[in-house]
Design brief:
- The chain contains 3 helices and no strands.
- It is an all-alpha fold.
- The longest helix has 25 residues.
- The radius of gyration is 17 Å and the shape is elongated.
- The mean pLDDT is about 90.
Length: about 90
C-alpha cells in the first residue's frame, strides 16, 4: 500500500511539474493543483496513524490518531483554494 501511494504522489507531482513548464496559463493552474494535491497526499501518508479519536479524556494505553496531520492538510487545502482563485482571477 505504501508503494502504491508513493507512486501516486510521484505521478501527481511529476505531472504537475511538467504542466508548470507549459506556456498556457490554464495548464499552469492545473499543474499547481496537481502539485498541491500530491503534497497533501504526502502529508497525510507521512504522518497518519490509525487509532481512536483524540477526544479528552484519553484512556490509558489506547493509541490515538494525531490531529496535527489532519489540521495541516486542511490548512493546505484552504491555501490551495485561495491560490487557485487568485491565479484564475489573474488569468481572467
Amino acid at each position: 500500500m505504501t508503494m502504491l501511494v508513493s507512486i501516486a504522489v510521484a505521478v501527481l507531482i511529476g505531472s504537475g511539474s511538467y504542466l508548470l513548464l507549459k506556456h498556457d496559463l490554464i495548464r499552469v493552474v492545473v499543474g499547481v493543483l496537481l502539485i498541491s494535491n500530491g503534497a497533501n497526499l504526502f502529508i497525510m501518508m507521512a504522518g497518519l496513524r490509525r487509532g481512536a479519536a483524540p477526544v479528552l479524556p484519553i484512556p490509558a494505553g489506547v493509541d490515538i490518531a494525531d490531529p496535527l496531520v489532519q489540521a495541516l492538510t486542511l490548512t493546505a487545502i484552504v491555501i490551495t483554494f485561495g491560490v487557485t482563485a487568485l491565479l484564475l482571477s489573474l488569468i481572467y
